[in-house]
Specification:
This protein is an alpha+beta fold. It has four domains: 404 residues, Peroxisomal Thiolase, Chain A, domain 1; 44 residues; 98 residues, no CATH class; 58 residues, no CATH class. It is built from 25 helices and 21 strands. The longest helix is centred in the N-terminal third of the chain and has 18 residues.
Length: 687
Amino acid sequence: MHRSPETAIAIVGLGAILPGAPDAPAFWRNVKDGRYCIDEVDATRWDPALYYDADPRAPERTYSKIGGWVRDWEWDPLGWRLPIPPKVSDAMDDAQKWAVACTRMALADFGYPERPLDLERTAVVLGNAMAGEHHYLTALRVTFPELARELDHAPAFASLPEDVRARIRQELHGNLDAWLPDVTEDTMPGELGNCLAGRIANLFNLRGPNFIVDAACASAMAAMDASIQGLLDGDYDAVLTGGIDRNMGASTFIKFCAIGALSGTGTRPYADGADGFVMGEGAALFLLKRLADAERDGDRVYAVVRGIAGSSDGKGKGIAAPNPVGQRLAVRRAWDKSGVDPAACGLVEGHGTSTRVGDVVEVESLSACFAEAGLAPGTVPLGSVKSNIGHLKGAAGAAGLLKAALALHEGVLPPSLHAETPNPNVDWSATPFRVNTELREWPRNGGPRTAAVSAFGFGGTNFHAVLEEHVPGRLTSNVHASASVPADVGPADAAPAPAADAPAAIAPAAPPTGRAPLRGALVLGGRDDADLAAQLRAALDGPAPEPAPPAPEALRAPERLAIDYGDAAELAAKGATALKALESGSPAAWKALRARGIFRCSGPAPKVAFLFTGQGSQYAGMLRELRDREPLVREVFDRADSARTGSNRTSSWGTAWASTARSSPPGCSPSRPRWRPSARAGRRWPT
């Protein structure tokens, strides 16, 4: 299903518990500050004296004891007025507790209950791959009879007197009972993975569908994909989604070490020395709504999801080996669904596990997908939150999405750690990507900031998402206008349309009397694609034309091409892209190129209408350049200043408004509006 602008999805609430961060703001501070949240296991989780061996060949031992551990987080259900008795709380896995706590955060961040949310039409769709660790402990408790049986069969034990054997059994059983959780009627619902979603729906009285999605390390992204589809199908109007992983037990370490996947030294995505991933744990949840609904309701929007897609590796080298074919399919499908040109991408939050093979395959796959976007080498920042907190497995995609959404919201490019020396097995000179290693302001390139996020799962499942900065009204404004223009009205010097075999027309021509355009527009008119391609090659061989109106004969040609440009370099880059599209003969290529200012049209020219809606600016400083260049516009601002504030005021409204982008500190964003009851029941309007 193609995701048009009308089907864009808004992220309107956040909640997180992650390594080194009890909430989303703390996580974001850690990312911007470049904090490394990896350390050794605490003996309260598992004892390295029992399970650790530095020798990677040691059987049934882990050669790694480092990870991204969640140590500081709040759990106060009674204080939060949630109906969870202490005995029920004791039987709940920490994964469920994190899910509940993060839901509470996301709803509060959205503004609920002060702000309305239709609980009847709110769903819960979460990603989780391995449940938590609680079920390992209860399973050990209930399997004690098997342990006792094997003990009885041991010849040395059987040689002991019966009373001694009975005492040993009793003491062993008592020791296990002392630290293993009880098995009660609350055990099963407290540790099942599906109850991650069910517990939330139960406690917060949400009546949309609730379920979990298991796509291994892509679980959170798969959950978001399913969540968005339900929103677009109208199954519900809001959804809590994201990922949770609380599985860092000794058995998980040992099993990953058995296939050589873990690092015992540290996490280094896309960097020299990458030798495996470092496991992490945590939860990140998002409240999603359709963008049109969010803007209608005045919600704060962190970022807009334009498209998300998945793929399978199919028949590859093995069930655990990354397959570039599958990865490329997911990336291309996501950008195709988004309707956004990949050339607009300003940040890729990659899967970046820090494995020897995985990082190289991922960069090569991304490069293949972005090859036709015309991006220069090293121009797109690449990073991975795993450099800060490790690989969260089923919640990995949620952490990456959280990082990308907050980067878009604040307009900054966050650093990726330990990549000062990039991976030497990647040919960085042949890829548009470079690892971003410092916090920087994120410049705009003629449109909204755009980011991409990848998550690939063990077993050959891949997901990729395209996110965009929220610009109010840009995607949801509906134009309803009509104009009746008599058929015989046209330019005084209009000529009949040329015949199919008439000579091609090339523009621009010399400008008529009047002011030249602010930007250039190369407009070509011809008989067919081949004719346009020949004219475009000729135009690119010469100097860039000065900005001027197009020639009328080019506008009346049966086949037309228009390229917006600011300088010769921009024209050369866009012209090369347009030439590829012409030579490919694919009509679908032109849809994505519109966002870059490259347009292709056939047949009679459609009517054009100018609509001035009376709406405010779509972004800070929107008319600053026009005001600076055009005395008439500056005059209007000055008159508005005088009428609004008085001519004797030092600071003028028009000047201050038009220069907001210049004066605002990097990363600053407007504070959230306060809300007050309106005259209409059940609604809140910003003050």
